[in-house]
Amino acid sequence: MVTIYRAHGLRIIIFTDDHEPAHVHVFGDGQAKINLIGPDGSPVLVWAQGMKGNEVRRAVQVVRDQQDLFLAKWREIHG
């Protein structure tokens, strides 16, 4: 597990032994999984547990804002 970003009380990680599609796990009060590239090319929420709506929205926005960086990190880790 590699922490790739921290902001707004959120910790965004990529598991080194994870699977496609490219995605991140976000930890705050709960946790969420967000695919880095959805059907329209932007990140898409896969699931969230224990997070309030505003925290989920913040997590998705952070991933949108940092999509290129997170994709580069995914490729660095997974080839």
Automatic annotation (TrEMBL):
InterPro entries listed in its UniProt record: DUF4160
A Pfam family hit: DUF4160
Domain of life: Bacteria
Protein name: DUF4160 domain-containing protein
Organism for this UniProt entry: Salipiger marinus
